[in-house]
Amino acid sequence: MRVAVYDTYVVKKNGVTMHFDIIVPGDQPHEKVLQYGHEYLKRVGQEGQPLTTKECRFCHTEEASEDVEKAIKESGYYIYKMEGCN
């Protein structure tokens, strides 16, 4: 499965910056990607933090690994956590 990767930086309520990728099927509109990002922020207790096209930008496309593809089939997207996400 070919996926699109969106590089995302969100400032948490405590001021620490979260860096994560939102990975979606390649044909998703940017508005849907932002919706997935808001769902993730709500799930990790960061609801209401700014997440717009300024914080979330298209980066590249790639071939998804089996784990990422499985997650996308289950929920529509995959979050790859990098910095400040815990």
Automatic annotation (TrEMBL):
Q: Name one Pfam family in it.
A: DUF2024
**Lineage of origin:** Bacteria, Pseudomonadati, Planctomycetota, Candidatus Brocadiia, Candidatus Brocadiales
Q: Which Gene3D superfamilies match?
A: NE1680-like (3.10.510.10)
InterPro entries, alphabetized: DUF2024, NE1680-like_sf
**What is the recorded name of this protein?**
DUF2024 domain-containing protein
Native source species: Candidatus Jettenia caeni
